Amino acid sequence: xxxxxxxxxxxxxxxxxxxxxxxxxxxxxxxxxxxxxxxxxxxxxxxxxxxxxxxxxxxxxxxxxxxxxxxxxxxxxxxxxxxxxxxxxxxxxxxxxxxxxxxxxxxxxxxxxxxxxxxxxxxxxxxxxxxxxxxxxxxxxxxxxxxxxxxxxxxxxxxxxxxxxxxxxxxxxxxxxxxxxxxxxxxxxxxxxxxxxxxxxxxxxxxxxxxxxxxxxxxxxxxxxxxxxxxxxxxxxxxxxxxxxxxxxxxxxxxxxxxxxxxxxxxxxxxxxxxxxxxxxxxxxxxxxxxxxxxxxxxxxxxxxxxxxxxxxxxxxxxxxxxxxxxxxxxxxxxxxxxxxxxxxxxxxxxxxxxxxxxxxxxxxxxxxxxxxxxxxxxxxxxxxxxxxxxxxxxxxxxxxxxxxxxxxxxxxxxxxxxxxxxxxxxxxxxxxxxxx
Length: 437
Ligand code: MSP
Prior knowledge:
Elements (H helix, E strand, L loop, with lengths): L4 E9 L7 H19 L3 E8 L4 H9 L4 H18 L6 E4 L3 H16 L3 E11 L4 E3 L17 E10 L5 H10 L4 E2 L4 H8 L6 E2 L1 E2 L15 E2 L1 H6 L1 H4 L8 H5 L2 E6 L3 H14 L7 E5 L2 E3 L2 E2 L10 H8 L1 H11 L6 E3 L1 H31 L16 H9 L3 H22 L1 H4 L4 H10 L3
Parallel strand pairs: 1-2, 1-11, 2-3, 7-12, 11-12, 13-15
Antiparallel strand pairs: 4-5, 4-6, 6-8, 9-10, 13-14
Helix pairs in contact: 2-3, 11-12, 12-13, 13-15, 14-15
The structure holds 5'-O-[(L-methionyl)-sulphamoyl]adenosine (MSP).
5'-O-[(L-methionyl)-sulphamoyl]adenosine (MSP) binds next to strand 1, helix 1, helix 7 and strand 11.
C-alpha cells in the first residue's frame, strides 16, 4: 500500500547570531507534528536549515574578520547543536550554501528569465537589512521597518525584477478556494486584503554586495536572498527530480507570523511561474515574548534555548511550549512558568503516576504487568486527540492527554492499591493492570 505523505518544513534561520528561543519554538512545533504523523505510519519528510546569504551576513562576517563562508560555517554549528539538543527529528538540515540548492535556485531564476518573467530594471527603495526586505512607504511605520522598528536605508541599484504582479489574481483565487492554504484562518483575511492591488513586481537581484548566489547569466548580480531562500523547500526534496512531487502534494510550512507575506505572495508567485502548485498549507505561529515584550538584545531579554535545555532538560522545554501557548497565538516565556509546569504537571501528575505504579509492580508482581483487559485506557479520547493534532491544535490535544493522566491519578487514589497488598491479590492485580498499558 502506498503510504500517505506528510512534508513539513520550518523557516530556515539566519545564522547571523546565535539561535534564540523563537527558533527553538518553531522547530519544536514542527517536530511534534512530524513525530505524530510518523506514528500514524505516514511517509514523513521534515526539513529545517539555515538561510545563509544576504547583506547582513556579509557585514557580520566582515566585522568578525572572516569570509562570509567561514562565518556561516562557524555559526551554523550552533543551529545544528540546537536541533540535536531539542531532539529534532529532521530528515535534512539544508543550508542555502549547499551546492544542490544553489543549482536549483539558479535554474528557477534562469527559467523565469527565459519565460520573460524576469527583466532588468533599476531599483530605488527603502530597505531593512535585518529583514533583507524592501518596504513601500505605505508599509513603513513612522519611516521605520514595521518588524524591527529601525530606520531603513535608501538603496538604489540596477536590478532584475520578477513579474510577481502577474500572479495576483491567481493567488487570490487559490486562497479563496482552499480552506487550509493559510492557517490559522484569522491570518488569511489580512493576506488577502494586502494581495488585492498589492502585488507589484519584485526586485530579485542585487549588485551592491557579493554574498549571494550569482545570477547565472549576469555574474554582476546576486540573487535576492528571499528568492533564493524560499526555493529551499523544493531543493530540499530533490526538485526537479520527479520524486519531489509525492511530498509537495502534502506540504505544510511552519513559519512565524512576520514572514507570512513572503511565504504566500512571493513564494506562490515563484511556484506558479515555475509551473508548480502553491503550497498546500502555510501555518503562521505567533511570537514568543518575554514579559509581554519582544525579545531584545539591547534590553538583555534574549533567551538562549541551549542554556534552558541544560538547566531543565529538553522534554521540559518542549512540553512547556506545547502546553503553554495555543498554536498560532503569541505566548509568553518565563522561567517561573516553566518551572511550575515542570513541577506540577511533569513531575507531580505524570512522574508520580509512573513512579508509584511501576514501583508497586516491581514490589508486588516482580516487574511484570498483570495480564487482563485494560478498560481505563478507553477514557483516553484518542480519536479526539488525533483529530486535534490533525487540525494543528496541539495545545488542546495536550489538555485532553492531561485530563486522562489526572483520571488515572484519581483512580489510583480512590482504589488505594497499597492497601490491597496481602489482602486482595485479585483486585490489586486488576488495579495495577489498569494504570499500566
Ligand atoms: N531566514 C528567514 C526565513 C526564510 S524561510 C525561507 C528568517 N529567519 S529568522 O532567523 O529571522 O527567523 C526564523 C524563524 O524564526 C521565522 O519563522 C521567525 O518568524 C521565527 N521567529 C523569530 N523570532 C521569533 C520569536 N520571538 N518567536 C517565535 N518565532 C520567531 O526570517
